[in-house]
Design goal:
Helices cover 47% and strands 18% of the residues. It is built from 10 helices and 9 strands. The protein has helices at 13-24, 68-77, 97-106, 126-135, 155-161, 172-181, 203-213, 231-252, 256-280, 287-317; strands at residues 3-9, 33-39, 56-61, 83-87, 91-93, 111-119, 141-143, 150-154, 185-196. A 5-stranded mixed beta sheet has the order 3-2-1-4-8. The N and C termini lie far apart (49 Å). InterPro entries: Glyco_trans_2-like, Nucleotide-diphossugar_trans. GO terms for molecular function: hexosyltransferase activity.
Length: 318
């Protein structure tokens, strides 16, 4: 029962090495595991990634212009496994990850992808705890989509889904798992877990990343049916951003009433999302920390969405 781990990579070798280390510690026959690293960093070919492990590790270099989907799809063409495990290059798996992914996937014939819950350390900063709580909003149940950080499926299922969407810079995991959900069920389990080594730890870092992540927001909905539950993630960030912008403009021209009205309209969804996550949170983060998270998250997502629109218009006009 051969398992191929496919890991796209760009920089940050220390996290890649920790990721591979966690694969090497699996309670599984290591001779049945191969690791395919598809890197955009030339130095990867000179790195010793299999030191002190029995793992078979293959490293390939691809163009710096390839999307993460292209790296994953290329990795699949070089894999030999009956099962495919797609990991980001900053994921530390629990030792029972393969065992539980196999059990979860095989226990129900209609299941097409399984994935493990996120975990963080007790001393993690508030932002990391918030991101972990968001990731674990639904546990031990079938879900509508899965993040691409750790996905486990058969090779046959990968081909039925059609591979990852290479035209998307970000949001490729939503697109891929949404297509998978049309063919079978997705299951998010607490029986295994992972630590996201590269998780956002500061609001400034998150702000920059969310601008980047938001660029493919609208492109990711092209050619697929958008369920009602997804619409708020597309509508709310730009709506809050525009309300805040209008509030500032109204204040600048001396319209205090208008400024208060627009500010109130922005605060309604902001406080609603904050209250929901605060009640959901099991990691004991304060209400103010959650509010700060959404106060930064929504404008960043909106800026990224608008940047993606302008980029698409510019490309079409070239």
């Amino acid at each position: 029962m051969h398992v191929s781990f496919i890991i796209p990579h760009k920089g940050r070798f220390e996290m890649l090495i920790q990721t591979i280390e966690s694969v090497a510690k699996q309670a599984f026959d290591l001779s049945q595991i191969e690791v395919i690293v598809v890197s955009q960093t030339p130095e990867a070919l000179k790195q010793t990634l299999n030191e002190n492990t029995e793992l078979t590790i293959k490293t390939y270099l691809r163009s710096e212009y390839d999307t993460i989907s292209a790296l994953r799809n290329y990795g699949e063409t070089r894999a030999n496994g009956e099962y495919l495990a797609f990991l980001d290059a900053d994921i530390y798996l629990s030792t029972n990850w393969i065992e539980q992914m196999l059990r979860t996937l095989q226990s129900h014939p209609e299941r097409i992808i399984s994935s493990a819950m996120q975990r963080c350390k007790e001393d993690a900063p508030p932002l990391e705890k918030i991101r972990t709580s968001l990731s674990n909003a639904e546990l031990d149940t079938e879900v509508a989509f899965l993040p691409g950080r750790n996905l486990f499926l058969t090779r046959e299922a990968f081909h039925r889904i059609g591979g990852f969407p290479e035209h998307l810079l970000t949001c490729e995991d939503y697109y891929f798992t949404d297509k998978a959900a049309q063919l079978g069920t997705l299951f998010y389990t607490s029986s295994a877990d992972y630590i996201h080594l590269g998780e956002d730890k500061t609001l400034k870092g998150m702000f920059n990343k969310e601008i980047w992540r938001g660029q493919s927001n609208l492109k990711s909905i092209e050619g697929r049916r958008i369920p009602l539950r997804e619409w708020p993630s597309f509508v709310v960030p730009p709506a809050i951003f525009l309300c805040l912008f209008c509030s500032l403009m109204a204040l600048c021209i001396g319209q205090a009433t208008g400024a208060i009205v627009f500010l109130g309209l922005a605060l309604i969804p902001l406080l609603a999302y904050t209250s929901r996550l605060y009640k959901l949170d099991k990691l004991h983060v304060s209400f103010l920390h959650v509010l700060a998270f959404y106060t930064v998250y929504f404008p960043a997502r909106a800026i990224g969405t608008f940047a993606g629109i302008f980029k698409s218009i510019r490309i079409k006009n070239i």
